[in-house]
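User: quick one, fold this
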Amino acid sequence: MRAFFCLFSLLLPVHETALASGGPPARVVVPTTPGGAASLQAEYLAEAMWRPGGQAWIVDHRSGFGREAGEAVVARSPADGQTLLLASASLAVRAASPPTGSGFDPTRELKPVIHLSSTPLVLAVHPAVPVTSLEQLLALARGQKYRLEVAASSAAGLDGLAAAMLLPPVAAARISIRRGESAALRALTGGQVDAMFVAAPLAVAHVAAGRLRPLATTAASRHPVLAALPTLANPSRDFVGNQWYGLFVPAGTADEVVADVHARVRQTLRAESVVSFFSDRALVPGSDDPAALGALLRQDMARYAAMIRRAGLVL
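Assistant:
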């Protein structure tokens, strides 16, 4: 996290230089508060994209609801390739949650550009919580002597859905909604809450420093950074998948404009420094094919809508 804030502080003069050079910057809307895993990638790629002859990215965090939500802001923007949305799988959860939805359909109002990455969520607890395994945590949640509190960045987000699916209906537990990933993570590391599903890029440093105790991941396959952890993903358990991140533009954007943005971002993602940055943070590169990102969004919308209905959840 320290590296992230140092990086963030270095980006402002980079953007000012880019503006002075006359190159029009692109606005990258991140539909969350600053400090989350989407922000981490947006800020890093903003620096990596800017180079001699490259295009500046200005990161714009929009964590509102309805028409003020980041995805809605992008959908209303000019379809010229200058306004991008860096969204996650939480976009699919929000679209699949009618009580909190606003009728926004990302499959109609946005066009996929490129699947940037995927990463597991890590179920982690504060070291003071008296458990060392998933089974012990569930036993604690089912008991009556300990009121388990699980943080989530949003009710209608992937981590909020994961928490709601994990906790049995009769558990003496509650989900504590915080304003964004960074706020929820601060509550967890500070001992204000007991547990959280943390995106792996944010969890890795805290686990290494002993500030969090990891219990499990949502990874379908073992990642070297998280190889020792059991997975919640198995054929007998209906559970959320990995958090993914991708770039989208307004639906009316011309295919040739999408192809140009796609090519420039793909070239940046293949740089050795970017590959290393992603690998160290358990970020697995996504597919080069924009259609694959669109298919992933539709698949997750259908999957999570069915999951929410079956469980009778109200997010």
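User: anything notable?
Assistant: The longest helix spans residues 290-311.
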